[in-house]
Amino acid sequence: MYYNVLCATSEKEVQRHSLSYIQSLEAIDNLLEQNNDGNYLLGSDFSYAECISAPWVQRFYVTLPYFRGIDFEEEILSKFDHLSVWMREVCNRPSCVDSKCPEEEMIAACKR
Q1: How many other C-beta atoms lie within 10 A of the C-beta of residue 84?
Q2: Residues 97, 17: Cα–Cα separation, whole Å
Q3: Strands, E, within the chain: which ranges?
Q4: pLDDT value at position 36?
Q5: Cβ pair 67, 110 in contact under 8 A
Q6: Spatial CA neighbour of 76 closest among 64, 67, 66
Q7: Could you give the 3-state DSSP secondary structure of residue 1?
Q8: Are 21 and 5 contacting, i.e. CB atoms less than 8 angstroms apart?
């Protein structure tokens, strides 16, 4: 869904794919809401699930504003209580900060 937003060829397509993308994020928010043991997908411990998700979360913050003018934090994450906490936790984890791909490389990869 995310790449569909980036690859859309018209504003109408961007809007349509953005709605699908937001709906897919809602499923993750619901999963996190059911988890009473912590802010991560599997509870209070940072897991392999977060390791796999971190690069994607980082890309959302960079590529959606750059290519689509979508303020990820304000226009998308603000709709979700649990997902927003989870994404901030993932992005602020020292290991994720240290291993983050430089933003210009993320943008260049999407341009290919």
Answers
A1: 17
A2: 29
A3: none
A4: 76
A5: yes
A6: 64
A7: coil
A8: yes
Phi-psi group of 47: left, alpha or beta (phi > 0 → left; psi -120 to 50 → alpha; rest → beta): beta
Residue 40, phi-psi category: left (phi > 0), alpha (psi -120 to 50), beta (remainder): beta
Contact between residue 103 and residue 62 where contact means Cβ atoms under 8 Å apart? yes
Q: Would you say 30 and 43 are in contact if contact means Cβ atoms under 8 Å apart?
A: no
DSSP one-letter code for 110: H
The mean pLDDT of the chain is 94
Task: Tell me the C-alpha to C-alpha distance, in Å, between residue 87 and each of 10, 11, 13, 81, 84.
Answer: 28, 27, 26, 10, 5
Rounded CA-CA distance 95/100 in Å is 8
- DSSP state for residue 41 in the 8-state scheme: T
Judged by DSSP in three states, 43 sits in strand
**Confidence (pTM):** 0.88
Nearest to 99 by CA among 60, 51, 62: 51
Helix, strand, or coil (residue 23): helix
Q: Judge contact between 91 and 54, C-beta under 8 A.
A: yes
